[in-house]
Design goal:
Elements (H helix, E strand, L loop, with lengths): L1 H26 L8 H15 L9 H10 L3 H6 L6 H8 L11 H6 L2 E3 L9 E3 L6 E3 L14 E2 L2 E5 L10 E6 L2 E7 L3 E2 L7 E2 L2 E5 L5 H10 L1
Length: 220
Amino acid sequence: MLIYLFLLILIPTILSYLILTFIYRILFKSKKKVSKFLVFLGSIGLIIFYYTPYSYYLEPSFHKFKEICQLDPEIYQANGGKLDGAYYNSILKYFNTDMDSLDYNKFQETTTLNFQQQKPPYKKMKVADKNLYLYYPLEILYDADIPNRISLGVSIVFNNDKPKNKQDIERMSIRPEWQTFRIKGIKWDIATSGDFRMPTKILDCDYFKKGIDNEKQRDN
């Protein structure tokens, strides 16, 4: 975490100096030295900007996260999509596979556990008393072709505990998350363990659902 804080100060300072140097030398054709005070103010400004949502759009992994979030069931259906085979294949493409190419034998090898008894990370479990079996997360079996700042959280529900083909898929869903690397607070457990942590903010697809929520309110 100390390295993170060091980089959080160093990188904006260097960027501030380079930007001001460009302004001095290129725009104003000045040979004066760059003001240290202006470099300091510029670095503060860049740090503040980094902690605004606008800075997300400068990061390629955020755009990939936004693209994947179009497959969030709520967002997908709000855009007129249906949760059918085409939708499932759109999810599976991030694992370089599809419903026909899945190795269903791998899903048979996992141990079936009661939903209430299992804790993450888990594989397959029975959904309540129904004849449905949830497999989560899919990343246990397949490597996702995505930036490492994104986690997909894909789950598959089968209509039996020995799936053999795509007809055994009851439903599939995806819950992506994006690591922002923005500190959201400080936690210091002085009383007991003494642990000092600075957790970072993680976004899920709810970030893009503001418009959907507004539509729901208008419908009601």
